[in-house]
Amino acid sequence: MFLLKDKDDPRRRMLLQALAAGLFTIGLPARRGYADVLGKVPGPLPPGRSIYDLQGDVRVNGVQATVDTKIGPSDTVETGKNGFVIFVVGKDSFVVRSESKLVLKGERGLLDTLTLFSGKVLSVFGKSRHQIRTPSAIVGIRGTGVYTEADPEQTYMCTCYGTVDLFASNDPDSRETIESRHHDKPRYILSGEPKGQRIRAAPFINHTDEELMILEAIVGRTPPFAFSSNDYSAPRREY
């Protein structure tokens, strides 16, 4: 994969010019580069289709997935070491990274709760309320974009935009309501800290605005931010 660290890198300029012109792309694992997807303009998926893109070991309810696999609000999505998947459920869309396990719960075609047992997921949600659960956190979502990483000891949560109610599991004294315009208040939620002190400030890591633009586009929306192709400087993911 191209790592676009240098602000004068011509590949970076090409990517940002394409974004500014309405052509979106996304950071992908090493076997794909930007050239493979540049010019692939995302939009709402055809009726009956759930998956926008996938690579490597991706399983839905234990069965190897293809682009034709349907994912609904009562399914389990798992990825292997080199796997990732971008998919839609209703008005919500997700990037599930490698070595992740995400369990979806809902009814009547609508997603209500996501449980991230392990791994990393970037999510954008419609206006209805949702909840994300991890081993150490409970997050109430109010129509927003969030990035989550989970392991048994801690959760990383970036509210990319919108409002969330953040709670540490089994500790009602550790709680915070976060309102964010653009990655303003990332947080760690720690499982082993004293009660009332389990939510800590965190840096902005491992997700990009380009990915958020993709996710909003495939459910027919645009994110509530804009940037110039000349001055975009947010951190980007490295593999």
Plain-language structure description:
With about 240 residues, this protein is mostly beta strands. It has a domain at about 50-205: Jelly Rolls (Sandwich). Helix content is about 10%, strand content about 40%. It has three helices and 14 strands. Strands 1, 2, 3, 4, 5, 6, 7, 8, 9, 10, 11, 12, 13 and 14 form a 14-stranded mixed sheet that branches. Strand 11 (about 155-170) and strand 12 (about 170-180) form a beta hairpin. The longest helix has 11 residues, at about 10-20. The protein is globular and about 45 Å long. The model is unreliable at about 1-40 and about 225-239 (pLDDT under 50).
Short description:
The protein has 239 residues and is mainly beta. It has helices spanning 10-20, 34-37, 209-217; strands spanning 51-55, 58-60, 63-64, 76-79, 84-89, 92-96, 101-107, 110-124, 129-133, 137-150, 154-168, 171-180, 187-190, 199-201.
Pick out the low-confidence regions: 1-39, 227-239
H/E series, N to C?
HHEEEEEEEEEEEEEEH
> How many β-strands, per DSSP?
14
Helical amount among residues, as a percent range?
10-25%
Mean of pLDDT? 83
CATH topology of the domain at 49-207: Jelly Rolls
CATH architecture of the domain at 49-207: Sandwich
Shape: globular
Number of helices: 3
- Biggest sheet architecture: 14 strands, mixed
Beta-strand portion reads: 35-45%
Radius of gyration: 17 Å
Q: What structural class do the secondary elements suggest?
A: mainly beta
